UniProtKB/TrEMBL annotation:
Protein's name according to its UniProt entry: 3-methyl-2-oxobutanoate dehydrogenase (2-methylpropanoyl-transferring)
Cofactors demanded by this protein: thiamine diphosphate
Enzyme class per UniProt: oxidoreductase
CDD domains for the chain: TPP_PYR_E1-PDHc-beta_like
Organism name: Streptomyces caeni
EC number: 1.2.4.4
Domain Transketolase-like pyrimidine-binding, chain residue ranges per copy: 5-180
Domain of life: Bacteria
């Protein structure tokens, strides 16, 4: 039976199901146990599964990920939480030099089924180091899978699939969407983890986004429809690997593409998308691929974040520029 639930609750239910289904699944992180996480995503799990499976760790991100690597080598499937996006960098070395490379280093004999959960992005009025979008830094590293759900249903199923993966997965959770609700059907058959999905059909231009920006793009498409413009909205869902085939099919139909993400535009994931689609769809495009994102500057104080984050007006401006060609 489908149930309407918030994205945070969907992740909680998904983790609960994984803990029930596989005794080798463990949760680790700062305050994930007794407190249930700062966003209460793991609320109640330590109470139900015990301190040996839902583990409150010291404030040491490198130690958290390093311990998870050791556990994975012994056959466990650890799911670790980095409390906020900007806290991941002490663990960056462990992630990119160990977690990402062990499979290749061992010629395929060693698998590291580790999920690294990272609440990311802005929009919640947080202080420094709490609102960043570092997904491109990890997407550049071979050996990691990078995914980000935009809604509760995807959050539920993508977490299940990430935990079941034998490869390490960086699971970016859009914290500004934690309280957005959607129908979740635990009996549904999910699609592939790295498959993009068209969430709104259109004919004049494709808006491609993932995580927190999908909702913004849907709002943009609704506003553009009032002006007689038909925009297709594509939820990429996965940053690495990226479903270029679905993206190409959409762009060949609409002939224009605007890529939207919270992270800075400069060297962001939109740059790779723009380059690949230009190669694949050169003779179909009627305008250059445009990108909308954050500025190439440190994330600002909370009172300025609305000026920093892409919103309705900035995305609509890019749409108008693309349609003007």
């Amino acid at each position: 039976m489908a149930e309407k639930m918030a994205l945070a609750k969907a992740i909680n239910e998904s983790l609960r199901k994984a803990l029930e289904s596989d005794p080798k699944v463990l949760l680790m992180g700062e305050d994930v146990g007794k407190l249930g996480g700062v966003f209460r995503v793991t609320d109640g799990l330590q109470k139900d599964f015990g301190e040996e499976r839902v583990i409150d760790t010291p404030l040491a991100e490198s130690g958290i990920v390093g311990t998870a690597i050791g556990l994975a080598l012994r056959g466990y499937r650890p799911v670790v939480e980095i409390q906020f996006d900007g806290f991941v960098f002490p663990a960056y070395d462990q992630i990119v030099t160990q977690l990402a490379k062990m499979h290749a280093r061992s010629l395929g004999t060693v698998k590291l089924p580790v999920v690294v959960r990272i609440p990311y992005g802005g929009g919640i009025g947080a202080v420094e180091h709490h609102s960043e979008s570092p997904e491109a830094l990890f997407a550049h590293v071979a050996g990691l899978k990078i995914v980000s759900p935009s809604n509760a249903s995807d959050a539920y199923w993508m977490m299940q699939q990430a935990i079941q993966s034998d490869d390490p997965v960086i699971f970016f959770e859009p914290k500004r969407r934690y309280w957005d609700k959607a129908e979740v059907d635990p009996e549904a058959i999910p699609g592939p983890l790295h498959k993009a999905r068209v969430v709104r059909e259109g004919t004049d231009l494709t808006l491609a986004a993932y995580g927190p920006m999908v909702k913004v793009c849907q709002e943009v498409a609704a506003a553009a429809q009032e002006e007689g413009k038909s925009l297709e909205v594509l939820d990429l869902r996965s940053v690495s690997p990226l479903d270029f085939d679905t993206l190409q099919t959409s762009v060949e139909k609409t002939r224009r593409l605007v890529v939207v993400h919270e992270a800075p535009v400069f060297f962001g994931s939109g740059a790779e998308i723009a380059a690949r689609i230009t190669e694949r769809c050169f003779y179909h495009l009627e305008a250059p691929v445009l990108r909308v994102g954050g500025y190439h500057a440190p994330y600002p104080p909370a009172r300025l974040e609305e000026e920093y984050l892409p919103g309705l007006d900035r995305v609509l401006d890019a749409v108008d520029r693309a349609l003007a060609y």
